[in-house]
Amino acid sequence: MSPSFLLLLLIPLVPLSLLAILSLIVRPKPIRIPIKSRHVFITGGSSGIGLALAHRAASEGARVSILARSAKKLEEARQSIKLATGVEVAAFSADVRDYDAVSKAIDESGPIDVLIVNQGVFTARELEKHSVEDVKFTIDVNLVGSFNVIKAALPGMKAREGRGPASISLVSSQAGQVGVYGYAAYSASKFGLQGLAQSLQQEVIADDIHVTLVFPPDTDTPGFEEEQKSRPEVTAIIAASSGSMKTEEVARRAMDGIKAGKFTVSCNFEGFLLALATTGMSPQRSFWLAFLEVITAGPIRLIALFFQWDWYNAIEKWSKTKNK
């Protein structure tokens, strides 16, 4: 038997051996999160992705609670869900920056099986043009507000008995995977959710609570429409390369990821590539995806560098035009 033939026989052993090793070491193990007949609590549930998630959870037979600041929008959301699904949802008016108000709402709602931390605010503006108050408001709502909601919900979630696996999901953004011109404050607040989610998963896995981090792209929400009116020209040029998604499609993909117990949920192909490029120390339940992350590390880095080249080229061209 020739050495070249032996080499051909050995080549398949490398990926097969890698798959075998990964199947033994990926953690946490795969899980399914039931939705039907369970309590799903959604912050930022009066509009956008949160409202779409509430519609989906109600249509799948969940007991749904939504929380937001505006009592008027909450009532409109409650009526729209009832009209579409026939399900009565509970609505709570509270500001996620106020821990006591959030804690009171969660106590009134009862033990939570699936917590979706979805609230968010953003303004696209160069850091130099941001007021200190703007930056603090963004981080307080997006990041500190998430701490408040989770801290308030955790005791009840840990105390559940015989109710099966629970879930805590944080809705981040693709701007929480890669920094974008004009998104310094927003990206900082959303990048923070990555560290929160990774640490939290280690803390709650023993309580059968499973963490999911959702990375939507630009999504056709009321907030996105407002942001487009004031975003810097360069931000618009960069964002134009990827387009946006419908709210209902983002909610569908997010809910599917939550039910599958995924740690990272991408909503489109570009997001999937971003997840591969930025996975770092994130948990991975699927050894097939872990295999893909390992073997594509180099090529994906090349793709990431191409995107950076494209973005910096756009900034350079804009800068030259501006200074003429």
Automatic annotation (TrEMBL):
The chain crosses the membrane at residues 6-26, 287-309. Residues 38-208 form the Ketoreductase domain. It catalyses: sphinganine + NADP(+) = 3-oxosphinganine + NADPH + H(+). SMART domains: PKS_KR (SM00822). Its main location: endoplasmic reticulum. Its EC number is 1.1.1.102. Keywords: Chloroplast, Endoplasmic reticulum, Lipid metabolism, Membrane, NADP, Nucleotide-binding, Oxidoreductase, Plastid, Sphingolipid metabolism, Transmembrane, Transmembrane helix. It is found in: Endoplasmic reticulum; Plastid, Chloroplast. GO terms for biological process: 3-keto-sphinganine metabolic process; sphingolipid biosynthetic process. The keyword NADP applies. The keyword Protease does not apply. GO terms for molecular function: 3-dehydrosphinganine reductase activity; nucleotide binding. Pathway: Sphingolipid metabolism; Lipid metabolism; sphingolipid metabolism. It comes from the Eukaryota. InterPro entries: KDSR-like, KR_dom, NAD(P)-bd_dom_sf, Sc_DH/Rdtase_CS, SDR_fam. GO terms for cellular component: chloroplast; endoplasmic reticulum membrane. Belongs to the short-chain dehydrogenases/reductases (SDR) family. This is 3-dehydrosphinganine reductase.
